Amino acid sequence: MKYVKQLGIIMTLSFVGEVLHEIVPLPIPANIYGIVLMFLCLECGILKVSSVKEVSSVLIEVMPLMFIPAAVGLLDTWGLIQNAWIAYLVTTVVSTFVVLFVAGRVTQFVIRRTRAKAQADEIDTREDLEQEAKEA
Amino acid sequence: MKEFLETSVFFGVWISLAAYLIGWGIQRKWKLTIFNPLLIAIVLVIVILLLTGTGYDVYYEGAKYISYLMTPATICLAVPLYEQLELLQKNYKALLLGILAGVLTSLCSILLMTVVFGLEHGAYVTLLPKSITTAIGISISEELGGYISITVAVIIITGLLGNMFGEAACRLFRITEPIAKGVAMGTSAHVMGTSKAMEMGEVEGAMSSLSIVVSGMLTVVGAAVFAMFL
How far apart are CA B224 and CA B228, in angstroms? Predict the structure, then answer.
C-alpha cells in the first residue's frame, strides 16, 4: 500500500493545483501551485519526506521522457516558423546562454561574497577575543 | 498497419521510450554532448513518423499519456528541494538575486534581439516567456497575444539547449558552486534544464527546481511590463 499512498498524495496535490488554477484568476498553472503546496506541506510537517519519497524519485527519473511528445510537436510548428526561423533560433540560443551565464555568475558572486564576509567577521571576532584576553 | 497505428494506445508511448533508450545507449557508447538521449529520441521519433507517414496526432494519441505525468512529476521536484532546506535558508539572498538577474537578462536579451532582427510585436511576446516552464509560458504568450505554438517550440528548444549544453556552459563560464550551477540551469532552461541538474547533483537539482518556480512567477510580472516596450 505504501506506493499507492504516495501516488495518492502526489495526485491529490496535482488535483488541488488544478482546482486552484481554475478558481484563482492568475496565469499560474497547476504544477506551480502543486510544487509550492508540496513544499509547504513538507515544511509544516503535514507530510513527511518518507511518505512521498519513492514515487517522487521514480517520477523525477522518468521526467526526460515526458518532454519527448511536446518536442516531437515541433514537426507541426515548422510551417509557422519557416519564414523567420533564423531570427527565432538565434534569439533563443543567444538568450539561453546569456541567461545561464548571468544567473549562475550573480548567484556565485553573492555566495562567495557572503562567505568571504562571514570569514572576515570570524577572524575579527577571534582577534577581538584575543585582544580582550591579552588586556585581561 | 496504418489503421492499426491510428487506434493503437501504446504505439506513441512505446516508440518514445524505445527511442530514448536507444539515445541513452548511444550516449553511453560515445560520450559526446551532441549525443544527448533526449535529442536523439526526438529526432528518431520525428524521422520514424515522417518515414511511415504517421501524423503527429496519431502519435500523440498514445504519447499524451507520458505528457500527462508532467504535472505530478514537476510537483515532486518539491521533495529534493525540501531536502536542501537548510542550504536554501542560508543562501536565500544569493538565490533570489541570481534568479532575478537571470529573468531580467532573459527579458532584456529578447527585447534587444527582437529589435536587431526587426521582428514585430507578436513575435516579441511569443519569445518573452521562452526560459520558463511550458505551462506558464503558454498562458503568458496567450495573455499578451503571442503565437502559442511557436512559444511552445522556443521553450522546448531552450530546454533542449540547457539539457544538452548546460553542464558544458557552466564549465566554460566558470560557474563552479553547485548552488550557482543549479540556479543557472533552472533559470535558463526550466524543467528540462532541471532534469539535467538532477543528474549533476542533489544540490544542483534542488536549486534548479527552486529557480523554475521563482523565475516562472517573476516572468509573469516581468513579461507583462516588457510587453509594453515594443
Answer: 7
**pTM confidence score:** 0.82
Size of interface A-B (CB pairs under 8 A): 316
Query: Is the Cβ–Cβ distance between B184 and B167 less than 8 Å?
Result: no
Task: Mention every residue, 6+ apart, whose C-beta is less than 8 A from residue B70.
Answer: A31, A63, A66, B191
Q: What is the pLDDT of residues A22-74, one digit of tens each?
A: 999 877 788 889 989 999 999 999 999 999 999 999 998 888 888 888 888 88
Q: What is the pLDDT of residues B152-201, one digit of tens each?
A: 888 888 999 999 899 999 999 999 999 999 999 999 999 889 989 989 99
Decide if A31 and B99 are in contact by the 8 Å CB cutoff.
no
Q: With beta carbons less than 8 A apart as the criterion, state whether B112 and B229 touch.
A: no
Give the pLDDT confidence of A3-29 residue by residue, as tens digits. 999 999 999 999 999 999 899 987 778
Cβ distance B113 to A95 less than 8 Å, yes or no, reads yes
Q: Would you mind telling me the total number of residues written for chain A in this entry?
A: 136
Gap between the Cα atoms of A10 and A31, Å rounded: 11
Query: Which residue does chain A place closest to B90, by CA atoms?
Result: A111
- CA–CA gap between residue B161 and residue B158 (Å, rounded): 5
Residues of chain A with Cβ-Cβ distance to B224 below 8 Å are none
Residue with the larger pLDDT of the pair B115 and A125: B115
Q: Which residues in chain A are contacts of B76 at CB distance < 8 A?
A: 10, 38, 52, 55-57, 59-60
* Residue bearing cell 556552459: B169
